[in-house]
Amino acid sequence: MERLVILTGAGISAESGLGTFRDKDGLWTRHDLSEVATPEGFSRNPKRVLDFYNARRANSRAAAPNPAHEALVRLEQSYLGEMLIVTQNVDDLHERAGSRNVLHMHGTLEGALCAACGHRWPAPAIQRPQDPCPACTTAQARPDIVWFGEYPYHMEDIWQALRRADAFVAIGTSGTVYPAAAFAQDAGRAGAFCLELNAEASAVAPDFDEVRLGPASRIVPDWVA
Ligand code: BV8
Q1: Is residue 74 scored above 80 in pLDDT?
Q2: Does 35 contact ligand 1 (Cβ within 6 A)?
Q3: Is 198 or 115 the better-scoring residue by pLDDT?
Q4: CA distance 134 to 41
Q5: Is 94 a catalytic residue?
Q6: Nearest to 115 by CA among 31, 14, 46
Q7: Mutate to test the pocket of ligand 1, among 21, 93, 171 (most ligand atoms within 8 A of CB)
Q8: Are 145 and 107 in contact (CB under 8 A)?
Q9: Which residues make up each annotated binding site for substrate?
Q10: Closest Cα to residue 181, out of 202, 150, 210, 154?
Q11: A Pfam family name for this chain (predicted)?
Q12: Which fold has domain 19-62+107-145?
């Protein structure tokens, strides 16, 4: 039984009109990540953080999956082995394209989390600082996003899948954020063939057996074909 693990990053959603983080005019070139993507930043100024994610949630809901997302759906439907998509992205374009087996290791814009009691629920279109948690009623609602310094979701399942993988494919990620940036090493150590599909070689390109460069909307369908 073939086992395939696919890791996606912001680059797979770039051609859907959602910004990346580290390309020119990327999100982290216009926002200080320590102010909008850390628990400390949220404590300092909840409204600024909620405004940042409310805008991204609106963009995400207005965006549509692109041919790269759709190619992965075709692959999952025809794949005879086990296929898992691990995404660093917080948009839901994989699910809206039709992918079924998706793990969001950095959370999702479609979720809300209570900073006081840990309760999680579907996010409203707009989150406001005074929104009460449905479980403990305190006004500590925040986006269900894994910020820098927080522990990503599903790590045990992801590491187990990487240890058992026959192939690992990274799509549209710069390889700058850990622990995701180490996944090719993790999979390669377990004997997996590692392929990178990217617009430009990532910081961890040397960890891969093969690197193919180009826009995801072209090179992912070409790879799946
Ligand atoms: C943690 C949610 C403890 C926010 C994000 C070593 C080990 C472990 C941790 C660390 C370590 N060293 C440092 C750390 C700490 C830190 C970290 O990695 N810092 C970095 C800056 C050095 N990591 C953490 O804090 C993580 N937690 O470590 O917990 C732990 C310890 C050990 C083991 C487990 C746990 C939590 C990190 C999560 C932070 N949250 N996202 C939000 O989305 O608002 S991370 C942020 O970067 C993004 O959200 C995204 O998910 C992530 C990666 O970015 P990319 O997706 O790669 O996007 P980027 O813009 O960088 O690149 C785009 C790529 O696409 C480029 O390659 C480009 O060429 C390509 N591209 C562009 N257009 C196209 C394209 N490709 C194809 N087609 C196109 N059209």
Answers
A1: yes
A2: no
A3: 198
A4: 24
A5: no
A6: 46
A7: 21
A8: yes
A9: 53, 56
A10: 202
A11: SIR2
A12: SIR2/SIRT2 'Small Domain' (3.30.1600)
- Neighbouring CB atoms inside 10 A of 138's CB total 12
Taking only Cα atoms into account, the Rg of the chain, rounded to an integer number of angstroms, comes to 17
Would you state the structure tokens that stand for residue 70, as one six-digit string?
Answer: 């759709």
What does pTM read for this prediction?
A: 0.96
Place of tokens 């070139």: 29
* Ligand 1 within 6 A of CB of 26: yes
The amino acid sitting at 47 is: K
ipTM exceeding the 0.85 mark: yes
Domain 1-18+65-106+152-225 is classified in which CATH homologous superfamily? TPP-binding domain (3.40.50.1220)
Q: What is the pLDDT of residue 28?
A: 87
Q: Mind giving me the DSSP string for 39-54?
A: HHHHHH-HHHHHHHHH
Region for 120 from its dihedrals, namely left if φ exceeds 0, alpha if ψ lies in -120 to 50, beta otherwise: beta
**Is the preceding omega at residue 206 within 30 degrees of 0, hence cis?**
no
Residues 41 and 132: their CA atoms lie apart, in Å, by 20
